[in-house]
Amino acid sequence: MSGAGHPAAPLRAPVRAALRRTGRDGVTGGRALDHAVVRAGLGLVAGVDEAGRGACCGPLTAAACILPDRPLPELDGLTDSKQLSPAARERLEPVIAEVAVAWAVVHVSAAEIDERGIQPANTSAMRRAVAALDVRPGYVLTDALRVPGLTLPHLPVLKGDRVSRSISAASVLAKVARDRVMVELDARYPGYGLAGHKGYGTKAHMASVSLHGGCPEHRYTYANVAAARAQWAAAGGRETEEEVTTQS
């Protein structure tokens, strides 16, 4: 829970009361937490999550999603995007977009991550996603991450993408959007297999950076990318970044 002076601080008591009541009115599963907060009179609930934090290439993507406080059988099976198959995520993503009260997706570039660091970039992406909503929520639930500078009251929820339906929805929106970006980047920067590993630091991915030197979408401040680029440079670095950028 947030500390004194934080936007969430005045709402500690009602939020705690809401959490104690979770499930007592017959609403269970992923909707229970969101419903309890709404029942506490805190307004619409936005769930926020990200995808790509642990990658070493490509953007970090954040999504915010407000779902209606009612049963949504069309979202049966919704949970943390990492627990879902790609086919399940692709099936759920347009349904979430259709039933949501509001949703938004934003991307933070690799260059910004290198400049600011992953944690500031992550929280910035979450703030931007909430700000991009065309309906203002009364309360925000995040997946275990405090978001400094978010002016709305909010609560970081441990494993939130598994226990909050709105966070689960945001996790799917972010993951699907980012995966599509990585497929586009794979076509732009061939030779790195970005469509397959989605920018995560697999052995094959790092071997390709050692061979080609990296592309503008790599996070150059990351240790694994820096080490692979050092191997490339030690081998003569015959391809320039510009050549890698423009090869087709």
UniProtKB/TrEMBL annotation:
<feature type="binding site">
    <location>
        <position position="50"/>
    </location>
    <ligand>
        <name>a divalent metal cation</name>
    </ligand>
</feature>
<dbReference type="GO" id="GO:0030145">
    <property type="term" value="F:manganese ion binding"/>
</dbReference>
<dbReference type="InterPro" id="IPR012337">
    <property type="entry name" value="RNaseH-like_sf"/>
</dbReference>
<feature type="domain" description="RNase H type-2">
    <location>
        <begin position="43"/>
        <end position="234"/>
    </location>
</feature>
<keyword id="KW-0540">Nuclease</keyword>
<protein>
    <recommendedName>
        <fullName>Ribonuclease HII</fullName>
        <ecNumber>3.1.26.4</ecNumber>
    </recommendedName>
</protein>
<keyword id="KW-0464">Manganese</keyword>
<dbReference type="GO" id="GO:0043137">
    <property type="term" value="P:DNA replication, removal of RNA primer"/>
</dbReference>
<keyword id="KW-0963">Cytoplasm</keyword>
<keyword id="KW-0378">Hydrolase</keyword>
<feature type="binding site">
    <location>
        <position position="49"/>
    </location>
    <ligand>
        <name>a divalent metal cation</name>
    </ligand>
</feature>
<feature type="binding site">
    <location>
        <position position="143"/>
    </location>
    <ligand>
        <name>a divalent metal cation</name>
    </ligand>
</feature>
<comment type="similarity">
    <text>Belongs to the RNase HII family.</text>
</comment>
<keyword id="KW-0255">Endonuclease</keyword>
<dbReference type="InterPro" id="IPR036397">
    <property type="entry name" value="RNaseH_sf"/>
</dbReference>
<dbReference type="InterPro" id="IPR024567">
    <property type="entry name" value="RNase_HII/HIII_dom"/>
</dbReference>
<dbReference type="InterPro" id="IPR022898">
    <property type="entry name" value="RNase_HII"/>
</dbReference>
<dbReference type="GO" id="GO:0003723">
    <property type="term" value="F:RNA binding"/>
</dbReference>
<dbReference type="InterPro" id="IPR001352">
    <property type="entry name" value="RNase_HII/HIII"/>
</dbReference>
<dbReference type="GO" id="GO:0032299">
    <property type="term" value="C:ribonuclease H2 complex"/>
</dbReference>
<keyword id="KW-0479">Metal-binding</keyword>
<comment type="function">
    <text>Endonuclease that specifically degrades the RNA of RNA-DNA hybrids.</text>
</comment>
<dbReference type="GO" id="GO:0004523">
    <property type="term" value="F:RNA-DNA hybrid ribonuclease activity"/>
</dbReference>
<dbReference type="Pfam" id="PF01351">
    <property type="entry name" value="RNase_HII"/>
</dbReference>
<dbReference type="GO" id="GO:0005737">
    <property type="term" value="C:cytoplasm"/>
</dbReference>
<dbReference type="GO" id="GO:0006298">
    <property type="term" value="P:mismatch repair"/>
</dbReference>
